[in-house]
Amino acid sequence: MLMFYSLRFFGVQWKLLTCARCFSKKNIKTISFSEEGLICKNCWQPGEAVFRVELIKDIMQWQTLEQINFNTLVKYKINNEIILLFLDALWILSK
Q: Given Cys at both, which of 34, 43, 58, 66 links 21, Cβ 3.0 to 4.6 Å?
């Protein structure tokens, strides 16, 4: 969670309420770190990464959190998948 917010320092502004391509709120399929947002089923292209639905739901829920503190972070598990996504986003930004 905190990792996603720390990317703001690098100019990343997450679009986590609608599809980053068509702005639809329906049928969200995955998240794109290069486009800094969610991608719906209609905009997803074959060959693009697809992440677990649970991860997408967690990320969308984090967008609505107003206060980030230790108690909030304890509620949300930080797993290897999220850490790898964060590192991938940093790699994209470093190009």
A: 43
- List b or e across 15-47, with b for residues whose CB sees 16 or more CB atoms inside 10 angstroms: bbeebbbeeeeeebbbbbbeebbbbbeebbeee
Per the structure block, which two tokens stand in for 90?
């940093």
Residue-wise pLDDT for 27-46, tens only, equals 988 888 778 888 999 999 99
- What is the rounded distance in angstroms from the CA atom of residue 7 to the CA atom of residue 10? 5
Contacts by 69-77, CB closer than 8 A, 24 or more apart: 72/1, 73/1, 73/2, 76/1
51-63 pLDDT, tens digit each = 776 776 766 666 5
Structure-block tokens of residue 93:
């930004």
3-state secondary structure 43-66: CCCCCCCCCCHHHHHHHHHHHCCC
Question: So where are the chain's domains?
Answer: 1-94
